[in-house]
Amino acid sequence: PTNLWLDCDTGLDLQDPDSFAILMASMHPSLKLLGISTVHGNAPLENTTYNTLAVLEAIGRRDIPVYSGASKPFCRAPAHAAAIHGSSGLDGTTLLPNPIMPAQINTSAIEAMYSALRSSPPQSAWLVATGALTNVAILFLLHPDLVSHIAGLSIMGGVVGGGFNEAKLGTKNYGSNSFGNWTPYAEFNIFCDPEAAHSLFSNPALAAKTTLIPLDITHLVFATESVRAKLLHGTTAPPSIPASSISSITRPSVRPLFHEILIFFATTYAEVFGMTTGPPLHDPLAVAAVFAPALFRDGRETGERERWSVDVVRDDAIGDVTGSGGKKGVGQVGRTVARKVEGDRDGVRIPRGVN
Ligand code: BDR
Ligand code: CA
C-alpha cells in the first residue's frame, strides 16, 4: 500500500466531505494512513480535531494518530464556514460517537507529519490536504528537504473557471457566471489561507509534485440519490483493520452515519448553491488522486501531460472584474489563476475531467 498523511478540517457538524476523505484514506486497501493533522477551516481547530477523532472512533480506527495543527492562517483572521456547515453541535448527525482517543500531544503536528513522511522510503509517500493550507505550507518551509523525498502532494482546493471544463460552477448565491463557492472568485480552502497556498504553488520543485483537485473537478462528481442508497444499503464488509481498534458499539452504525452526513450535506448544497443532483464530495477526490490517478483526465490537447502554474490573489485591493458575475465589493482574494506552462514536467497537475 501507498503511505499517506492526511491534513484536514473536519467540519463542526460533519455535513462536509472531510469525513469521507478520512474514510477513504483509512480504509482503502491500497493506502496506509500514517496519521492525520487538523487545521482551522470549516470550524475552529478544536472542533476540526474533535470531529476527526470522532470519525475515526466511528469507523474503528482509533489506531490512527491525530495531531492538532494551526489554528489560524499565516496573516489573516480565520474564516469559518458556519454559514455553510452549520454553527452548533452535531446538527448533521446523531450517530457520531464521542471519541475515546485524545489527540497526540507528544510532538507537534508539523514534526509528526515530517517524521512520518521522511521515514517512508524516498518517492513513496503522499501528503493529501483537504483544508486550509497553513500546516502544509509551514511543513515545507521548515523542512524543504521533504520536497524531493515525497512522491506527491494532492490538494483539494481552488477553482479555475472560465470554461476550464464542462462543470457547472455558477451558484445560486453569486450568479451564473461566478465560479467560487465562498466568494464569487474563491474556493473555500484557498480563501482560508491564500498566503499559505501561494507559498506552496510558488515553490517550483513542490509544484511539480502537486496535483490540484479544484471545484472544476469536484463539481463533476456528485453523491446522487442512487450513490447514497448504495452507501446506506451496501453489504461489502470493510477491509480488515487492527482488531484492537474495533469498537463493537460503533461499527454497526457506520453506513447510516455516513448516509446521514450526506443527506445533511445534500440539503445544504441544494439550499445554498441550488445544486439538486446531490452534493459534490470534494475532499475524497484528492485521496483518490493518490491511488487512482487514471480516474482523472489531464486535458484535451496534450493528454496526460498538461501542467499549470498557479497564482493566488492575495491583494485585498483587487476588486471585482466586470462580467465575472460577482457581487460588488467582495474582492478577489483567494482566487486561483492557472496558466498553462510549456513542457510537461514543471507546474501543477490539474485534471480537466473525470473518467
Ligand atoms: C472545501 O471547503 C470545505 O468546506 C470542504 O471541506 C472542502 O474541503 C470545498 O471548497
Ligand atoms: Ca475540507
UniProtKB/TrEMBL annotation:
GO biological process, one term: purine nucleoside catabolic process
UniProt-listed SUPFAM superfamilies: Nucleoside hydrolase
Spans traversing the lipid bilayer: none
GO cellular component: cytosol
Family: Belongs to the IUNH family.
Species name: Viridothelium virens (Speckled blister lichen)
Protein name: Inosine/uridine-preferring nucleoside hydrolase
One Pfam match: IU_nuc_hydro
InterPro entries: Inosine/uridine_hydrolase_dom, IUNH, Ribo_hydro-like
Single GO molecular function: purine nucleosidase activity
Keywords: Glycosidase, Hydrolase
